[in-house]
Each structure stands twice: as structure tokens, then as C-alpha cells.
From TrEMBL:
<dbReference type="InterPro" id="IPR036236">
    <property type="entry name" value="Znf_C2H2_sf"/>
</dbReference>
<protein>
    <recommendedName>
        <fullName>C2H2-type domain-containing protein</fullName>
    </recommendedName>
</protein>
<feature type="domain" description="C2H2-type">
    <location>
        <begin position="23"/>
        <end position="51"/>
    </location>
</feature>
<dbReference type="InterPro" id="IPR013087">
    <property type="entry name" value="Znf_C2H2_type"/>
</dbReference>
<dbReference type="GO" id="GO:0008270">
    <property type="term" value="F:zinc ion binding"/>
</dbReference>
<keyword id="KW-0862">Zinc</keyword>
<keyword id="KW-0863">Zinc-finger</keyword>
<keyword id="KW-0479">Metal-binding</keyword>
Length: 65
């Protein structure tokens, strides 16, 4: 990979994307390269939290994005 980083933590974080998925969901077949992505998946898919509400339709979502 030819990406260049000015800070080591950014390089270290990017380097993980070249490794195999190392964080697997215990409830389904989803796999992730980063632990925060696994946590976000579990919160939004399996816990069914929906704290974000659309101002237009009132539908609730697990993530604001």
C-alpha cells in the first residue's frame, strides 16, 4: 500500500485494514477489522437501540448518519 501518514497512530490504524477481519460478532456472521465497528454493529443491529429520530417522518434510527 502506498498510503503515507504523518502520525504513527493513523498508520497503525490503517495497517489493520490489510489484516484479516479479527473481530467477529457472536450473534451473526458479521466480521470487522476494528473493535469499534463491531460495537457499533451490535448496538445498531442486535440491541435495537434507536435514539435518533427523523425530524420529518418521526422514524427512529440507531445511528445519526
Amino acid at each position: 500500500c502506498a498510503r503515507v501518514f504523518t502520525k504513527f497512530p493513523n498508520l497503525k490504524s490503517h495497517w489493520r485494514c490489510h489484516l484479516d477481519n479479527q473481530f467477529a460478532c457472536a450473534l451473526c456472521d458479521a466480521e470487522f477489522k476494528r473493535r469499534p465497528d463491531l460495537y457499533r454493529h451490535c448496538r445498531s443491529v442486535h440491541v435495537m437501540e434507536a435514539p435518533h429520530m427523523c425530524d420529518r417522518c418521526g422514524k427512529r434510527f440507531a445511528r445519526a448518519d
